[in-house]
Amino acid sequence: MKTGKMPSNVGNADTAPDYDFWVAMPSWTREEAIALLAGRDPARPHNAQTINEDTKKIELLIDRAFSFGVFPNAIQNSPRDYLSTIASSNVPIPPDLLSAMKRKKIDLRNWKLECEQLSAENKRLAKLVSEQANSASPPNENVTGLKRKIGSLQTMVLGIAIDKFNLKKNWQNSSVAGNISSAITRAGLSLSEDTIRKHLDETVAAKGAEAKFKT
């Protein structure tokens, strides 16, 4: 996340938005989010000729998030969703907007990074359980605890995949695994589509009967 000097057309008395007012709203439209992240008041008209490179990057990042199914709603989403998407880039965010978020006690979370970390932890714990199960020793409390932890991680991974990436019950021929891989790449990390597909196969097999898939 980058903060700092904003473009020269941002922050004057005629265009500076009331961030406390906007942050209190449950959701923003695409246009409102772009304006606020660029330091403009969405309620005021602006000159398209004043759009700078950072604003164009904001538009690109938000449009890609919509196209990849990152946002849960196709029309409007929470301020937190929009800022969390921009926070992983090098595009500066208006300091006054970040201050308003802090006053509202809204924490930004990089859920793309969390998804990758959960998948890695799931793989590590599964390996430990497998090694323990294949040993001569009978299962003990540590193995039971690991299985419970894996179950919790699988529940979290499946919940994120359904809510953020519109995972359906018969998802194998969909682009969900590729979309998750692209989202992780945008966060500056790497996890192959094949690896994600394997984790999803295991997770759906283990937890799919309990889940409410997208229709």
Summarize the structure.
The protein is mainly alpha-helical. The chain folds into two domains: about 20-105, no CATH class; about 110-210, no CATH class.
3D structure, described in words:
The protein is mostly helical. It folds into 2 domains: 19-103, no CATH class; 111-210, no CATH class. The chain has 9 helices and 2 strands. It has helices at residues 19-23, 30-37, 53-67, 79-87, 95-103, 111-134, 141-165, 176-186, 193-207, and strands spanning 28-29, 76-77. The chain has a two-stranded antiparallel sheet with strand order 1-2. Helix 6 (111-134) packs antiparallel against helix 7.
Number of strands: 2
Average residue pLDDT:
80
The structure class reads: mainly alpha
Spans where pLDDT lies below 50 across 5 or more residues: 5-13
What form results from the Cα inertia axes?
A: elongated
Query: What is the strand content?
Result: under 5%
State the domain count. Answer: 2
Radius of gyration: 21 Å
Q: With helices defined by DSSP (H or I, 4 residues minimum), what is the helix count?
A: 9
Distance N to C terminus: 35 Å
Order of helices and strands: HEHHEHHHHHH
Order of strands, widest sheet: 1-2
Main pleated-sheet profile? 2 strands, antiparallel
Kindly state the percentage of residues in helix: 55-70%
